Fold each of these.
Amino acid sequence: MDIDLVCKLRDEISTSIALVGGKAVSLAQLAAVGVKVPPTIIISTAAYSRHITLLRETLEYPDFESAIDDPESGREELERVRAAILRQDVEDCLVTSIKTILPDILLDSSQTPPTIAVRSSATCEDLANASFAGQHDSFLGTPVGELLSTIKRCWASLWTDRAVYYRRQHGFSHYGIKMAVILQSMLCPESAGTMFTINPVTGATEELLIESNWGLGETVVSGKVTPDLFVAQFNGASVMITERHIRPKRGMLTMNKAGSLHYERIIGARIMEPSLADEHVLAIAQYGRKIASALGCPLDLEWAMQAQTLYILQARPITSRLNTSAA
């Protein structure tokens, strides 16, 4: 196995943003302090670099420079860049490396056949001064047979209009940025959502905000539903729930045993049932406080609760206050 192309969270290169990107480094930090994360492997930025190098050697090499430097006419060229990345075959050495290490995450999968969450991890992503949240693409429920094409889709998302515009607006160089890809065993959680380890509205450091919905947390992250909201407050080592806002949750994203994702309409009393029991709210709050202390900064976390086990899917530093309301 070529360790420079594929690695595990506990491998040495997983601590390098240059090699695995900001999101993967955060996951490695979580694993290092004993936080439960889904079984994970990382396709390093070296694999992306080799893919682009091969692309540059082809006769159909797109004009990256024009795509980047001209905000108006560059859109068509960006589309050519993305198409070229998708068209170029993945190197055989990367395919071999993935096949060697992939069983390590599939053995723990709860689906038959297993599916994979494929997540972007750019070298500019989830940093303390810029999160790049939502700028690059991630894909849930990917069948093994579609893994290589989905990895290329993550690479190509580095060159979408919105990603290039975001970098331009925030003063990031386009030329040094690379994309790693995170492969995680898919979960089938009973509930999932986000957590802010400080109050992102008021800045109160003794408060945490937890948002939750039934099923996968994508409905919370994307804003497709209005999730339940819980505010937990710490007083020393003790924690209590100070606010509960149970909202009408009319839809959830679920995954069946075959690995298919579908949006399911919620009906009946479950619409207004809390998607988290109080004991789970308190457990998530305690876990969030522990993680923020270990990583040394306030965090925006994505979590999932499956079979009474709490998993952290990703963690990013809180870079600004949000315009959300607890009402």
Amino acid sequence: METLKTGVEIPGAPQKEEILQDPAALKEDEVFVDSSTSSCEENNSISENKSARASDELGTRSALVGDYDIHRSPSTRALMMQSLEANYLLENDIRRRKRKDSYSAQQASLATSVLSETTEMFMEGVDDIFDDNFWKCFQSKKPRAWNWNLYLLPFWLVGIITRYCVLFPIRLFFFVLGWVLFGFGMLLVQVCLPRGSKRRTKLEHRLISFQCGVFAFTWGAVVRFHGSPPAHGQRVFVANHTSMIDVIILQQMRCFSLVGQKHKGVVRFLQETVLSCLQCVWFDRGEMKDRQVVAQKLKQHAQDTDRNPLLVFPEGTCVNNEYAIQFKKGPFELGVPICPVAIKYNKIFVDPFWNSKKQSFQMHLFELMTSWCLICDVWYLEPQVRRSGESAVDFAARCKAKICHKAGLKNVDLDGYMKYWKPSSRFVQGRQERFAETLREIFRKEENDSETEVFHIGRPQSPLRHRRNID
């Protein structure tokens, strides 16, 4: 029973809870009319009731309680507002939870993306350290121990005594004797013959070839030459580089004008004094102006047929004779034929690789002189001419590929100058900016996705809108 403000209690009228919870009851409500009300007024009330039911946005139906419908009864209007407010709070809570879940998912996705990019850069560094192909090109081959039992130990001791107590003194004696004869001969030639004369130059070249032979003898060198160098002309010889002994081995057959880096100590003395008659070109890799001067000298030298042919090691540094790194394009821009020379050492008795950062040249010579012997193969390949439309870089790569194929070296495209230089600040900053731009893209994408998600969730409708309809 419901008591209206008029104090009239209408039997059979649905309660407030029934009106809210069972909309079907609204359909079955009976219309009670006062005995004092005419049949015309009853018809008008029923028409107004049908119009209210058609325009109700909540889907509820208006119910007449006596002469009071949903638009006129304050108690019914208050009841409906209470229901709308409850629905609004419920919808708002649901949307708040959706936004919270969406925000948590976006934060998790953002963290996953950032962690993925960071891990990828970290793993790139780990892979470079684990599979460091660059420094593999400059690692010496360590001799394998074979004196691991009592049967082999006596033979190993005999070998040590023979190499250090017999072979080394004999080789050292001929090494000193050769230097004495070479020095005396060079002094005699330079004093007796005028500078620049062809006879003096020819004798100096023969003395240099003689001294290179003395070096090879003190190492017990067994050198096998395959083919012969081409005749004199406008040619540049390029070879893979393992050690300073490459020059000594090649100078035995004919004299070359060398192109290389300035060294210190004994090597510097040999470069400036002994090899001065060869008209060599030395440079300092740290001077940019020096490079330009050297390039000009090389071009003039290569086009002069009266000078010795140039011998260039385009790798720019010593490699362990297992790899061939990037050839510098300078010698291949001179406009003259290139004669590739492949040098391969057999490391069964000694490793000829010279690591100038870890070992002095004197200790390198000592290792060679105390070894059983040095075995080497030298191939003089067919001269190569730059093709039409071929760049100097491609020409250098083609010549290097021929050397690698003949000598059995691994062809890698690595810059040997990275051995001497650390990564510049410009390179480091470039990598940092690249990584930062990747992170910015991730944050921009997450921000756009967040705005799109908020737009789709929307906001619940306020009950005030329904209240205006009710009022």
